[in-house]
Write a structure and sequence with these properties.
Shape of chain A: globular
Distance between the termini of chain A: 24 Å
Oligomer: heterodimer
Number of helices of chain A: 13
Helix content of chain A: over 70%
Order of helices and strands of chain B: HHEHEHEHHEHHHHHHHHHHH
Largest interface: A-B, 100 and 98 residues
Order of helices and strands of chain A: HHHHHHHHHHHHH
Strand order of the largest sheet of chain B: 1-2
Radius of gyration of chain A: 23 Å
Structural class of chain A: mainly alpha
Number of strands of chain B: 4
Shape of chain B: globular
Chain lengths: ~280, ~350
């Protein structure tokens, strides 16, 4: 880290930029806390609208009691939760095998999976759509959750992690005659917990924010995730009737990721740094 | 007995451990990838095939010809001549200079070659294209990437240098700049549509007391792309910032101190010491962003619906429209395959860059 003091003008410029950077989010939050009737007249009531005066929680009450928002929120929770759980389960197992078991075919399968890192969602979403349509499986929560489990990033991260664990930890168990299942369960998993935490958080984050797949797969509003639902209600944006509620939906849609951010910022940063470190 | 020893063998364990993942990987990534290419070789209408599975027709590379072909194809110096001249002159000058200093690797030759090929040959092609809209969205996507990547990189690099220090101020500001990164694309577009609003947008509110009318950011064909770029930069600076901060941590403190003792300060220190020290990270972050932003979709879909006209329509949105509005999934798959090939080139460059970094 650089210990020298910054020139004063740099300090001022960067601080000002940070304040500017926060304005859009602060404004959204503030508008969601102002009465709708006021917002249909002006969005700049107190200090450019950045301070929620007059203050009300009616917008949140309204979106939580009527409309689809609570349902979309729950859908997102179930979808992101399921894919996170499945990613963790499949990629810790596979990562352990690729890193620490010598088996025939490993040198073919692992590179194939790594090559999958280069295939973005945008390239496979049409065949995926056609496939699930053949199975008549659209408009269901498993269909929304499953494609994410196939993404190789978790396997890649866990393999890298297990490769770095020294052999000595494993040898003692091996001499006592433990099999791979036993070593994995009682030695490796406890060691991997922090890494799994990181993987879980970034998977949840990306899954929660996913837009393209739920957009094409979920046609019925019942099965929208909050990300897609929010996109839908942005459509009738022109009339600022309900602007407060729209903003409240935006805040609600961001709430889980904001909580994750506040609690686990370190994990998120580490996840990003590691997942790009090929 | 034989069964037990088989069950304890490494071969069995290995495959048993990777099986759960393969159950997801093979049908949900590997197969769709192959299937996508297969579909791109067919005249395949989603609705027709739903009612009659035999309604697809194998047409070989027909979709690719329709996508990229044209009649009376020729080449001329004229289209965008000033832009092409400036860019190719710049590339040649940089290239010659670096060849003299022997500072080049494979990836540089490739990038110089690609840029020259694009500016001199590709941009000079003229003809009656079968699908002129495709070239419009390709150009828009390139323009989008050409703005977002350098701007994001510059802002993130400068911020990283300023915020690479201990203390509460730097820690708080790092969080502030990173925060927007975690929002979903629909929240980002929701916020920015409102910021750009003509009547009650934030910019309009700021301009109102001065008696200035806010321009119609998202429906003016001169401004719409810029507006989307600005929102995207706001959204994605955090990502680059994190990677640059990680890169800066690798620079040995002595090198910075030595430079400071030699009297290198401010800009000179940044340009002569810091940037060369993390040039690999810079390359890496830029390529990463190029690949990422080629896939732009939500901003265009939600903020401008590709408009006005096709001014902000982008590649993935055109794929989406072709597949799900026009039901032409065969043709859309051909577009997706070309997009993949395009991103593949950059992934390979990235691979080379990383390889060289390690050796």
């Amino acid at each position: 880290m650089n210990q020298r003091a910054l020139p004063r003008w740099v300090f001022i410029v960067v601080t000002a930029a940070a304040v500017l950077w926060m304005i859009p989010v602060v404004w959204m939050l503030s508008l969601s806390l102002q009465p709708n009737e006021l917002l249909s007249r002006t969005t700049a009531n107190t200090f450019l609208g950045l301070v929620p005066v007059p203050f009300t929680l009616d917008n949140f009450r309204a979106i939580l009691s009527i409309g689809d928002t609570p349902r979309w929120f729950m859908n997102s929770m179930i979808v992101a939760g399921t894919s996170t759980f499945l990613v963790l389960a499949t990629s810790t197992l596979a990562g352990y095998a690729f890193a620490r078991i010598r088996f025939t075919g490993r040198s073919i399968v692992y590179p194939l999976i790594l090559a999958g890192l280069m295939v973005p969602e945008q390239v496979v979403f049409i065949p995926l759509y056609v496939m699930f349509a053949d199975w008549d499986a659209h408009n269901s929560l498993p269909t929304l959750a499953l494609p994410r489990v196939a993404l190789p990033i978790g396997v890649f991260l866990m393999t890298q992690f297990f490769k770095d664990i020294p052999d000595s930890l494993e040898e003692a168990a091996r001499l006592e005659g433990c099999g791979h299942a036993r070593i994995f369960w009682s030695i490796m998993l406890p060691l991997a917990t922090p890494m799994m935490m990181t993987l879980a958080i970034i998977t949840f984050l990306y899954s929660w924010n996913d837009y393209l797949w739920p957009l094409v797969s979920a046609q019925r509003t019942d099965f929208f995730t909050i990300t897609v639902g929010l996109a839908k209600i942005q459509g009738n944006f022109a009339q600022s009737q309900g602007l407060g509620q729209l903003m409240a939906s935006g805040v609600l849609a961001s709430l889980p990721v904001i909580i994750l951010f506040l609690m686990f910022q370190k994990h998120i940063l580490r996840g990003i740094a590691l997942s790009t470190d090929k | 007995m034989r069964l037990t020893s088989f069950l304890q063998s490494d071969n069995f364990s290995g495959w048993a451990f990777i099986l759960p993942y393969l159950i997801a990987f093979v049908p949900l990534l590997l197969w769709p990838f192959i299937q996508g290419f297969w579909m791109s070789l067919h005249e395949w209408n989603l609705l027709a095939v739903t009612f009659n599975p035999a309604a697809k027709e194998f047409i070989g590379l027909g979709n690719y010809v329709r996508l990229m072909g044209g009649d009376d194809i020729g080449w001329s110096l004229q289209p965008m001549w000033s832009f092409r001249l400036v860019v190719s002159a710049l590339v040649v000058a940089l290239y010659v200079r670096s060849v003299r200093r022997r500072a080049l690797g494979y990836s540089h030759h490739l990038m110089a070659g690609l840029t020259l090929f694009t500016t001199v040959i590709l941009l000079g092609l003229t003809g009656d294209w079968y699908d002129s809209r495709f070239w419009i969205v390709v150009r828009n996507t390139l323009v989008f990437v050409a703005w977002v990547v350098p701007v994001t990189t510059t802002i993130a690099l400068l911020l990283a240098i300023a915020l690479n220090r201990e203390g509460r101020w730097a820690a708080t500001l790092r969080s502030v700049f990173f925060f927007s990164q975690i929002l979903s694309v629909t929240v980002v577009t929701l916020i920015w549509q409102l910021v750009y609003g003509v009547r009650n947008g934030f910019i309009a509110n700021v301009l109102a007391p001065f008696g200035i009318d806010s321009p119609n950011w998202l429906t003016d064909d001169q401004l719409a792309m810029g507006a989307i770029v600005a929102a995207t930069v706001w959204w994605s600076v955090g990502f680059a910032l994190i990677l640059f901060l990680a890169g800066l941590q690798q620079i040995p403190g002595e090198r910075l101190e030595a430079a400071t003792l030699d009297g290198a300060e401010g800009w000179r220190k940044i340009v002569q010491i810091i940037v060369p020290s993390i040039i690999r990270t810079v390359q890496f972050v830029m390529i990463m962003q190029i690949v990422l932003h080629f896939q732009v979709f939500g901003q265009s879909q939600l903020m401008t619906q590709g408009g006005p006209g096709d001014a902000t329509n982008v590649w993935v949105r055109y794929i989406y429209q072709t597949a799900f509005r026009d039901s032409e999934v065969g043709y859309a798959s051909a577009m997706a395959t070309v997009l993949f090939a395009f991103m593949m080139i950059f992934s390979l460059i990235q691979f080379w860059v990383t390889k060289r970094q390690e050796s």
